Amino acid sequence: MLTLVENHSLPRTAAFFDLDKTVIAKSSTLTFGKSFYQGGLINRRAALRTAYTQFVYLVGGADHAQMERMRAYLSALCRGWNVQQVKEIVAETLHDLIDPIIYDEAASLIEEHHLAGRDVVIVSTSGAEVVEPIGELLGADRVVATRMIVEDGRFTGEVEYYAYGPTKAEAVRELAESEGYDLSRCYAYSDSVTDVPMLEAVGHPHAVNPDRALRREAVARDWPILTFQRPVRLKQRFSGFAMPQRPALAAAVAVGTAALTAGLVWYASRRRARFGTA
User: Fold this and answer.
1) pTM given for the model
2) What is residue 65's predicted lDDT score, i.e. its pLDDT?
3) What one-character-per-residue DSSP string does 87-100 give?
4) Considering just the CA atoms, what is the radius of gyration of the chain in Å?
5) Is 152 a catalytic residue?
6) Using an 8 Å Cβ cutoff, are 186 and 13 in contact?
7) CATH superfamily of the domain spanning 14-275
8) Which of the residues 20, 191, 195, 211 is marked catalytic?
9) Catalytic site residue from 18, 104, 191, 211
């Protein structure tokens, strides 16, 4: 358990949380794929590919090369999107899509850090239009997220600020300087080896549901390894009678099966188009 009482005569502290597969059980951006399709932002083919990408991410995570491919794909996908429409779609579907996949363990940690007097900061590679509403839902004090360039109210497809890898660590240090955080007494949580720079920046790094590479790093550096596996609706937690939820792995398998089917349909359609087969 965390120390719940913080000495307020000491410098301020914070807890920095990665979002995807750390606080929530899926990729935040990819989770809205169906909503973007229903809103007319993407076509059926893109929706199927997004579902398949979510499946791959759930099963195997994403190393640097995969993250770069995902960034390039999503940047091209959102080119021309109306920013206000994106915000409206996220706002309308936020509770239905995100609320059920928040890890109970993560929500409890956020509460404990707040009770200890620490700020809670979400640091995510996903886009600000998605991360900021999720941060508000979680009660985060601040959010660091990727920002796209916008012209005439639409995304250009170019990235203005990419919150990824070393850039996350830079953002943590900049916040520490501006907010007066003592990083040696701060906490950080992530599932991905790409976030090692952010974890190294604080005195209390934690690996959460780590990928294989991060698990090796955590073992070698003697970092605590946490297992989050109970997604639960926030309103159930706050009502005091949360119903038992399936473990995240079982949920991932269920979601993954549907996503894989969709992905295979998309892949088969590509092969037919490419090779002219019926």
Assistant:
1) 0.76
2) 67
3) HHHHHHHHHHHTGG
4) 19
5) no
6) yes
7) HAD superfamily/HAD-like (3.40.50.1000)
8) 20
9) 18
* Alpha-carbon separation of residue 170 from 79, 130, 148 (angstroms): 27, 21, 18
H/E run at residue 143 = strand 142-151
Quote the pLDDT of residue 26: 83
Please report where in the chains the tokens 């998605």 appear, as a residue.
130
Q: With contact defined as beta carbons under 8 Å apart, do 50 and 30 qualify?
A: yes
| 18 flagged as catalytic | yes
CB neighbour list of residue 177: distance below 8 Å, 6 or more residues apart: none
Alpha-carbon gap, residue 254 to 258, rounded angstroms:
7
Domain boundaries, the chain: 14-275
Sign of the C-alpha dihedral, residues 153, 147, 228, 254? positive
Task: Assign 53 a pLDDT band (cuts: 50, 70, 90).
Answer: low
Distances in whole angstroms, Cα of residue 226 to Cα of each of 22, 86, 154, 181, 234: 10, 34, 40, 24, 20
* Cβ proximity of 201 and 182 under 8 Å: no
Structure tokens at 93: 């579907």
- pLDDT by residue (tens digit) across 246-259? 343 334 334 343 44
> Are the beta carbons of 165 and 175 closer than 8 angstroms?
no
Highest mean pLDDT of the ranges 43-57, 59-73, 204-218, 261-275:
204-218
